[in-house]
Amino acid sequence: MKKLLLSLTLFVGICANAQNLSADHKAVIADFVSCFKDNNEQKLTERIAFPLKREYPLPSIKNEREFFKRFDEVFDKEFVEQIKKSGNGEGWDAVGWRGIMLGAGDIWLDEDGNIISINHQSPVEAKMRKALIAAERETVHESVKEYKEPVMVMFTDKFTIRIDRMENGKYRYASWKRQAKMDSKPELIVLNGSFEPQGSGGNHYYRFANGKYVYICGITVIGEDDAPPAYLTVLKNGTEILNQDAEVFEP
Length: 251
Known about the structure:
Residues 1-18 have low confidence and may be disordered. By secondary structure, this protein is of the alpha+beta class. The protein has two domains: 2-125, no CATH class; 141-248. The protein is built from six helices and twelve strands. Residues 1-18 form the signal peptide. This is DUF4861 domain-containing protein. Keywords: Signal.
């Protein structure tokens, strides 16, 4: 659900920024689509910088061997047909430096045709994710067992931070000391957080207000090479008192 909301938000923002496809774009797309028309999974792996992230808590695809094993989980028949029919550029948009996207961001390519991200989720993955969510619920402290779906876990030098989407559509922030396990009681829980998109590239952050403090957990989906994958910023009375790069947990 979170990914659907993000994709829709992305799509709305992108409509104003999408550009007509150039001849180079169309050539890149045609070459990418040929991987599916020719059933050339090996050629496709050459376009992926592993690990290939999947929606939490689905495990990332870590290497070529896993990609071949899980290919049908990611690329279901309907999705493959959608890609095959797009070889002339139909359904694709160029979005400046962010790359080229199919549909509402189902898949993103860079200017060279390499895969940036795959946001499409097949029925098989959706079923797997549901089972993983149920299993994970049993591994966390009782104070944070109730939620609609997990969003992510991230680590800074000092903290382990967990974000969950609640039944009311808001988000919950829970944090532990870096070495603590999530089956222990969190040091801090903040409710009623919000999801805030940043531009049209998919970057976003979650904002949590707790009295005079504000906690911001940012995620970089598409960014500069030296951009951290995530970050934590803490404000006190509007003044930044902490800013730490973070790593997103990869199951």
